[in-house]
Amino acid sequence: MPIERSNIHPSVKIWHPELVNIYDAEIGEGTKIASFVEIGGAKIGRNCKIEAYAFIPSGVAIQDHVFIGPHVVFTNDKFPRADGQWQINPTVVEEGASIGANSTILSGIRIGARSMVGAGSVVSTDVPPLTVAIGPKAEVRRTIH
């Protein structure tokens, strides 16, 4: 799998570069990327950790110190079609947020600073800073102190 047309800081650790697909991306200092990750046209901040099988498409901006668990999927179009034009809706994951394994983040979402998304959640609305959102339709369950 290729790494093409990307601005990747020299300190980024990609555990198996031959097993990722990264293109048109920007990846900040100190970030760690596991195997079988696809990042296309997204911006990743500094000191992030992206676990295996994550999918991060164009329109996604991940700030510094963010954890992306294994099998996390971001979408970038609310009404995708095979024909016609895509309408990319920007998604932002703010500094220090954590997204648990097997979560799906729909397009146009903002996940607040230092918030947590529980494993297996489907995030279809914004997650405020310093909260925990969990469930098949992720809902804020508590605040983080």
Describe the fold and architecture.
The structure is a single chain. By secondary structure, the protein is mainly beta. The chain has one domain: Hexapeptide repeat proteins (UDP N-Acetylglucosamine Acyltransferase, domain 1), CATH 2.160.10. The protein is 0% helix and 35% strand. It is built from no helices and 21 strands. It has strands spanning 3-4, 7-8, 13-14, 21-23, 26-27, 32-33, 38-40, 43-44, 49-50, 55-56, 60-62, 67-68, 73-74, 91-93, 98-99, 104-105, 110-111, 116-117, 122-123, 131-134, 139-143.
Give the helix/strand layout.
Elements lengths: L2 E2 L2 E2 L4 E2 L6 E3 L2 E2 L4 E2 L4 E3 L2 E2 L4 E2 L4 E2 L3 E3 L4 E2 L4 E2 L16 E3 L4 E2 L4 E2 L4 E2 L4 E2 L4 E2 L7 E4 L4 E5 L2
Parallel strand pairs: 1-4, 2-5, 3-6, 4-7, 5-8, 6-9, 7-10, 8-11, 9-12, 11-14, 12-15, 13-16, 14-17, 15-18, 16-19, 18-20
Antiparallel strand pairs: 20-21
